[in-house]
Structure formats: C-alpha cells, structure tokens
Design brief:
It is built from 5 helices and 3 strands, in the order H-H-E-H-H-E-E-H. A hairpin with a 2-residue loop joins strand 2 and strand 3. 64% of the residues lie in helices and 13% in strands. By secondary structure, it is an alpha+beta fold. It has a 3-stranded antiparallel β-sheet.
C-alpha cells in the first residue's frame, strides 16, 4: 500500500520548516540547502524527499543539478486550511485581553 505523506507531519519537523524558509525566496540545490545544516547530507536529502512527496517543494533539473523551490499553490492551500483556526485563536486572545484589562482597571 502506497501511503502519501501528510503535509502537517512534514511541516511539524523544525528542519523541514527551516528548509522551506531557505527556499522560500530562491531555488536551491540539495548541496546548497545541506550546507546550512549541521547534519549529514543524506539526512537533508531525506527531508527534501519528504517535502517533495508532500508537494511542498518542487524539483527542476538543470543540467546535472536538481533545484528545489517552493510550491506556492500547496503552501497557499495549507495557509487557507489554517486560517480559520488562526482567526478563532485571535478572537479568544482578544477576549482574554479585554477581560484582563477590565480586571486590572478594577484593581486600581
């Protein structure tokens, strides 16, 4: 059975999030990405494989090198999924802030 990797499990890893940040503004080769980490290159390659399988990164062959770049559409899909939760928590924190301000003003 061929299971696709889960996008949210992929971005849960701090190294993979760091890789996404690195390639957010420009495409990079695996070697250039690996040079930013204090781990073995095969470890970074595994992270790149996972991000590619989740379609968060795309690959483009340029001669002998493979360049990795952000898949903006997939990142937008993730952001759109998360947005309602962000709004919910913003509302909750704003209500808590109002309660705390009210409480502080009664203490004075």
């Amino acid at each position: 059975m061929n299971l696709r990797r889960d996008v949210f499990q992929a971005i849960a890893d701090p190294t993979r999030r760091a890789i996404l940040m690195l390639v957010a503004t420009q495409s990079m080769t695996a070697g250039a990405i690996a040079s930013n980490f204090n781990t073995a290159r095969p470890t970074v390659s595994k992270h790149l494989q996972i991000l590619t399988e989740c379609e968060l990164l795309k690959q483009e062959q340029s001669g002998r090198e493979i360049h990795y770049y952000i898949n903006a559409k997939k990142m937008k899909d993730v952001a759109e999924f998360i947005e309602p939760f962000r709004k919910m928590w913003d509302d909750r924190f704003n209500k808590l802030e109002a309660v705390m301000k009210n409480y502080q003003s009664k203490e004075k």
